[in-house]
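sorry to bug you again but im stuck and you know this stuff better than me. below you get a single protein, a line of residues and a line of whole numbers that encode the local backbone shape. mainly i need to know what kind of three dimensional shape the backbone takes. anything you notice is useful, everything is just below:

***
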Amino acid sequence: MTPGDVDTLLGFFDSGREDGGSFDAGIQLALERMLVDPDFLLRIERDPTGTIPGAPYRLSDVEVASRLSFFLWGSIPDDPLLDAAERGTLTDPSVLEAQVRRMLADPRARSLVDDFATQWLHLRNLEDVTGDPVPFPDFDDNLVEAFRQETTLFLASTLREDRSVMDLLDADYTFVDERLARHYGIPGVYGSRFRRVTLPDREQRGGLLGHGGLLALTSYPTRTSPVLRGKWLLDTILGAPPPSPPADVPALPERGEEGRTTSVRERLERHRQAPACATCHASIDPPGFALEQFDGLGAWRTADEFGNPIDATATMPDGRTVAGMAGLRALLLERPERFAGTV
């Protein structure tokens, strides 16, 4: 706090005491002034004197400390970080690395995982996930909470163990309790404690693409949605969101023509015959089709709700054909820069 800041607050104190007739009234007005100050409410980075508008410039050590602390902890810098910033050493790569490792080892780094998972993967929307009791009789709130815990613990382990960002797509392990293990068909897990398990079939469920919560978020209460899943993958995994659909596009019918129990894939293929739909769905639908072996709550299946065999092959926009999640993941791993850039 500068002498000018003190003078400002004393002026408000004097004004409040004079108008309110008491010491307490003066303190109240000074506190009100402090609490609405932009420097208190916001993290402000001021352009250095003489900087050309729009031109890049180097952040000060204190600004780096602020960014780092709010990114990793969601809170203000602590004394060791501020000390390094005030000494002007924080932009030294070795000092910066030491501070980052220290901060990641602190329990407050859980904020990074929680905030990152909530924002990037939209885990906050899990509270809105519902499962129709007819196709999904085993759905309950405990399963939804298990979904949330699985993905949060998975991200935390990746960060804590300093793993490659590509492990988010290709890991051969996950975190489950008894409820989630039963849902995934993983044997030998009992009790409510979450523990790390090696997946029995990595090709079937490895990495984020096999997390039940993310598959449920991109489904409807009664069925899967290759469109929602494909759009999610383009947007969240590849950072290439498709355009919004035209306003007059009709919803996909729940059944085929004359009420026949046709698969979602067959209905979408007819939907794509409309010229207004074909272009966007050519890129949206294929990755969604590759995930069709997971039902609306992320459980593995070989047939849909009508008994139709699942066809999880997909022809991508570049003409290549992939088979199921394993093929889709292999394709994504060929382009690590796209996924890493999105993260």
